[in-house]
Design a protein that fits this description.
The chain has 6 helices and 11 strands. The chain is α/β, with parallel strands linked by helices and 231 residues long. β2 and β3 form a beta hairpin. The structure holds cytidine-5'-monophosphate (C5P). Cytidine-5'-monophosphate (C5P) binds next to β1 and α2.
Length: 231
């Protein structure tokens, strides 16, 4: 089976405080976005990628892979969820796929075997899910009025970090995301919208190398993880 990926890449990367969005910073001479796209398209079950970029993005059209037939550009939106929905709406006009993957542009270190495990959900469970890893540290809930004071310790048993890719039946995800946005629900990943709409969502355990590049040190860490793949 062949699948399509929507890659939200329309963020401005404020926490990176760099001269350009983090997806256009380079690791070994190649942008983070290209590392991510290469990782995805080289997977044997991925055939097409829709990338949501900022409408005034000056970098995307200059990428060497820009003219590849497997790549489609769409204008992203104000929030990540708007960007993902823009990608899904574009796909609704073109392909109407049964299932869709969504993967952050800023996660180049995901592995092919993790993607394969996630894709197996379609066949074996018939329901969607996401890559996730269990939290390791003790978790604290801060006081709302005094954010530097602890209110309580949250039981970390059963707590997971939600990563990407996330993988869902296409129409159900498009409907859930669009309804959740209209209802002004805080949506920071696709699973949030699916949970809100009452769909079951599977956790698929991922390695914690699948980091989201967010702060300056993450670039060096991602470079290290990517270099391990070539050993
Ligand atoms: O900002 P954050 O790290 O959560 O962004 C996750 C992904 O969502 C990034 O790849 C970013 O480019 C993308 N994004 C987007 N549209 C936005 C905000 C973020 O496509 N409006």
């Amino acid at each position: 089976l062949q699948f399509t990926v929507v890659v939200p890449a329309a963020g401005v990367g404020k926490r990176m405080a760099a001269d350009r969005p983090k997806q256009y910073l380079t690791i070994d001479g190649k942008t983070v976005l290209e590392h991510t796209l290469d990782k995805l398209i080289s997977h044997p079950n991925i055939q097409h990628i829709v990338v949501a970029v900022h409408p005034q993005d000056p970098y995307f059209d200059g990428l060497p892979c820009r003219q590849q037939p497997w790549l489609t550009r769409v204008d992203g939106g104000d929030e990540r969820a708007d960007s993902v929905l823009a990608g899904l709406n574009m796909l609704a006009q073109q392909q109407q796929p049964d299932w869709v993957l969504v993967h952050d542009a800023a996660r180049p270190c995901v592995s092919h075997s993790e993607i394969s495990q996630l894709l197996a959900l379609a066949e074996h469970q018939g329901q969607g899910g996401l890559l996730a890893c269990p939290v390791r540290d003790t978790m604290k809930r801060a006081n709302k009025d005094q954010p530097s004071l602890i209110d309580k310790t949250v039981d970390r048993d059963g707590l997971w970090h939600a990563l990407t890719p996330q993988f869902f039946p296409f129409s159900a995800l498009r409907t859930a995301l669009s309804n959740a946005l209209q209802a002004k629900i805080a949506i920071t990943d696709e699973a949030s919208a699916m949970e809100w709409a009452g769909h079951p969502v599977q956790l698929v355990e991922s390695s914690d190398k699948n980091i989201k590049i967010t702060r300056p040190d993450d670039l060096a860490l991602a470079a290290f993880y990517l270099s391990l793949e070539n050993l």
